[in-house]
Every structure is written in structure tokens, then in C-alpha cells.
Amino acid sequence: MIQKPYTKISVPIEINGEVRQVDFRPADTLLSVLRNQLSLTGPKLGCLNGDCGACSVIVNDTVYKSCIMLAIEAIDAKITTIEGLHDTPIQKAFVKHFAFQCGYCTPGFIMNCHALLQKYPQPTYDVIKEWLSSNICRCTCYQEIEEAVLDVIENRE
């Protein structure tokens, strides 16, 4: 039996405030479209099963792991990658508190922390710990990341 290859679809997707035309197969993940078609390499290829969070992006104000989200699910959504954040308080706090080592997981952590602070302007320590548990860093402890989040909370005007 001859299998017919998936036909690509061409749709506009809003990424980082800009509408971009992309062509993808219905089975393509959002991560593969971001990295391979749009050259947005901030979301990292990690576990490919939604465990590590290196590929985290914000879709309509909610954090998603783009390695397990189909690109077709992002049609009519507003997607933000690390490239779409510009001098946010959490980015500055990560630098101030050295909340990274190798940096591979850092974009995912920043996206997760940014979304946390958007949803919960004054999160409890337990909420911060819970949110951070959805991302994995193998190079450092989470203390510096927690300090970065707490710094943003303490220094809000």
C-alpha cells in the first residue's frame, strides 16, 4: 500500500506581536515550526516529552511546552517566545542573581517565571516553588531562580 504524505498547510500565526506566514504538516510540533521555519531558537529542544520545560513559550497568556503542542493548535493564538520579551524585570533579575549556568534551560525558566508573575503578581513562596517544578535545570540549584522571582516581586512599583 502506498502511503500519501501529509499535505502542508499555510497559515498566518502571530508570534511575538508579528503575524508570520508558516507552512507545516498537521503533525508538526510548535517547537519544530518555531525553530526550523521561523529561526526562533530561544525555545530549546530538550526532552521532547514535556518534562524539562526548555521549550516553554506563552500562548494566549498561558505557558505551554512547545515540544508537545502541535503547531496547528496555535492558529489564531498569540504566541510569545523568549525573543519576544524585551528587558522585562524577570530577565534583568536573572542576570542580577546569576540565575543560570550553562544557559540552555534559561529561556524556558524565564518564560515560565514571566507568566507566573503575570498571572500572580504577588505569588506565595509555595506557588513559586510549584511553578518552578515544571522546569528542570541540571546545572544549578533553583535558589538563584527563586531569588530572581522574589526580587521582581519586592521591587515592583
Brief overview:
With 157 residues, this protein is α+β, with helices and mostly antiparallel strands. It contains 5 helices and 5 strands, in the order ββαβββαααα.
Distance between the termini: 65 Å
Walk across the major sheet and give the strand order. 2-1-5-3-4
Number of DSSP E strands: 5
Q: Oligomerization state of this entry?
A: single chain
* Range of helix content: 25-40%
The shape is: elongated
Main beta-sheet strand count, sense and barrel state? 5 strands, mixed
Question: C-alpha Rg, in Å?
Answer: 17 Å
Indicate the low-confidence ranges by residue numbers.
Answer: none
Q: How are helices and strands ordered from N to C?
A: EEHEEEHHHH
Task: Give me the secondary-structure topology.
Blueprint: E1 9-15, E2 18-24, H1 30-37, E3 56-59, E4 62-65, E5 78-80, H2 89-96, H3 106-119, H4 125-132, H5 143-154
Parallel strand pairs: 1-5
Antiparallel strand pairs: 1-2, 3-4, 3-5
Structure description:
This protein has 157 residues and is α+β, with helices and mostly antiparallel strands. Helices cover 32% and strands 16% of the residues. The chain has a five-stranded mixed sheet with strand order 2-1-5-3-4, with helices on both faces. A hairpin with a 2-residue loop joins strand 3 (56-59) and strand 4. The longest helix is centred in the last third of the chain and has 14 residues, at 106-119. The protein is elongated and about 60 Å long. It starts with 8 loop residues before the first strand and ends with a helix. The mean pLDDT is 94.
